Amino acid sequence: MKIEIKRGDPQNIIALGRETDRRMTMEKRSKGFTAVCIGLLLMSMACAGQQPLVTLGPAKGEVTLDMKASDFKFEPNNIKVFKGDVIVFRVENTSGSNHNFTLKDAQGRLLQSTALPSKETVEIRVALAETGIYEFYCDKPFHSGFGMKGRIEVSESQ
Ligand SMILES: [Cu+2]
Questions:
Q1: Which of its termini does the chain have fewer beta carbons within 10 Å around, N or C?
Q2: Half-sphere exposure of residue 55, counting CA atoms within 13 Å on the CB side?
C-alpha cells in the first residue's frame, strides 16, 4: 500500500501513524510466534530421553520389533536383543516428513541406513553378530540431536 502524504495535512499524518502502529503489532506477534516455536523445540528435546527397556528373545532365530518413527524420536529407543538372532525392525514413519533408520555396530562402524518415507512402514532385517551396544539414529541434519536416536544392547545368547 502506497501512502501519499501531503505536507501539512493532519488527517494523513494520523493515518500514517496508525499504519506504523499496526506494523509494530505484527512484528511483536511474529516474535511471539518464534518464541513459541523455540519453546516447542526445547520441549521435544527434553522429552526425547531414554525409554523403558524392551527385550526381544532370545529366539534362536528371527524376532520382529514394531517401531514408530516420528518428529523426532524412535519408539522404542532402548532395546535388548541376543547375539545370533536376526532382528526384523518393522518401522512405521507416522510423521509428515521423511526420516531414515541408520545403524552402527558395536565398534561404531556404519552397518546400514534405510530410508523411512513419510507415512510408510519399512522392514529392516539385521543380524547383530557381536555383543555390545549398537546405536541407531536418523542421519538427517539435526534429527539425532533433537532425540531421534536409540540404543540396542546385544547380549550373549543364554
Ligand atoms: Cu529424521
A1: N
A2: 6
